[in-house]
Write a structure and sequence with these properties.
This protein is α/β, with parallel strands linked by helices. Helix content is 36%, strand content 17%. Strand 2, helix 1 and strand 3 form a beta-alpha-beta unit. Keywords: Transferase. It holds the Pfam family CoA_transf_3.
Amino acid sequence: MRTGAARGALDGLRVLDLSRVLAGPWAGQILGDLGAEVIKVERPGRGDDTRAWGPPYLNDGQGAPTSESAYYLSANRNKQSVTIDITRPEGQRLVKELVAESDVLLENFKVGGLKRYGLDYASLAAINPRLIYCSITGFGQDGPYAERPGYDFLIQGLGGLMSITGQPDGEPGGGPVKAGVALTDITTGLYAAIAVLAAVNHRHQSGQGQHIDMALLDVQVATLANQAMNFLTSGTAPGRMGNAHPNIVPYQTFPAADGDIILTIGNDGQFARFCEVAGRPEWATDERYATNAARVANRDSLIPALRQTTVMKTTAEWLRLLEEAGVPGGPVNTIEQVFGDPQVQHRGLRIDLSHPLSQSVPLVGSPLRLSGSPVRYASAPPLLGEHTGDVLSQVLGLDTVAIEQLRRDGVI
């Protein structure tokens, strides 16, 4: 990985990130990892809502908690923090001047929320026709729900994800369950970054910016993927199946003598090899189980038999046998075990960056691996307003006197 000032794939691209919480900041962090200059515009005195979403907080050198929440730290590296009060005309003027010098704007205000400040797409495109303006909302810029606030948990339920997540109804622990992370926010951030990059390429061809309308609900429905197609092709809505897979068997957790293992058998050859190491070679030729379609049809008899077999060996024994046989399987790790895993460590998925309130801050590394323009880790998530003076001076050319006057007036 390159660090510091090394050139990245998006060097030369300036992004104004007016978003808060997760989906927008996640998109901004991706763009920053790829080399874009990301300026995070925050409310004076408060900043991004997630700065207060703790504990836990980053500890200082003596082990005492600082002001920086773990949640905020997860989505804001490689950014500069500038505090501007956009409710005031002087603050709106500063944002417009920054827009004139920028390529991309990210925002997740309610529909029409920025129009009252003259910071909507139409107003800013008149200042900078090349501006790529990405709006992220719960339900999009139009439609009967457009005015509603949208939150990840709400969208996971409304968008169908919770109808297929968790134990089946009627079983112990049955009922709707959300994903363990704000998955819809994360995937919306990913789609937003993709859309921005597509718009950048379109601008290379046309010279024009555009408005990107990203909705959490749209993304959640789109990422139902094969489960959506199971419904659209059959007319039958899939339900919750715990850890089982609707289209592949065996593809779920199984009990070992000392815990649980995961089997993800994706084809008949893998199943036959599993049967050999499990001491049940006859299953591979049994017409009830020889093909995946047959195993799906007969899962009610196969799964209990598999459970009776897997429980006879420990997790470590199974993982060794599965690896030797080329059968995909794995453990159910805690997050602590994840970061102790040798492959995770080899891939550098934990990074440590210097931080002004602590010796360093641990962060999760980017999964992007580009051979010619690797991601960069230039800076830790910024303190609130840490770069206000630098950005106003270097980007807008304001002198010290002007900046201090804005501070005295409460604009920044």
